[in-house]
Amino acid sequence: MLAIARALMSRPRLLLLDEPSLGLAPLVVKQIFQILRELTAQGMTLFLVEQNARHALNLSDRAYVMGERPDPPER
C-alpha cells in the first residue's frame, strides 16, 4: 500500500501495477481493490497485471487473459 501511495503522490494519469495483491491478507486485498476502483472512478487509467482474475476482471473495462500455450502436436 505504501508503494501505491508513493506512486499517487505525483498525480499520474496512468498507474501500472504488477500483482498488487500478492502475499496480502484477503481483507487487505479487498481494501486495495476498493481504492483502485475509486481511482478509476476519478478518471485514472490502470494497467494491472494480476493473478487474482476475479478481482481484476471486476475492476476492468478491458481485459487480456494469458494462459499457458499448449504443446504443438507432434508430426
Automatic annotation (TrEMBL):
<dbReference type="GO" id="GO:0015807">
    <property type="term" value="P:L-amino acid transport"/>
</dbReference>
<keyword id="KW-0029">Amino-acid transport</keyword>
<dbReference type="InterPro" id="IPR027417">
    <property type="entry name" value="P-loop_NTPase"/>
</dbReference>
<keyword id="KW-0813">Transport</keyword>
<dbReference type="InterPro" id="IPR052156">
    <property type="entry name" value="BCAA_Transport_ATP-bd_LivF"/>
</dbReference>
<dbReference type="GO" id="GO:0015658">
    <property type="term" value="F:branched-chain amino acid transmembrane transporter activity"/>
</dbReference>
<comment type="similarity">
    <text>Belongs to the ABC transporter superfamily.</text>
</comment>
<protein>
    <submittedName>
        <fullName>Branched chain amino acid ABC transporter ATPase</fullName>
    </submittedName>
</protein>
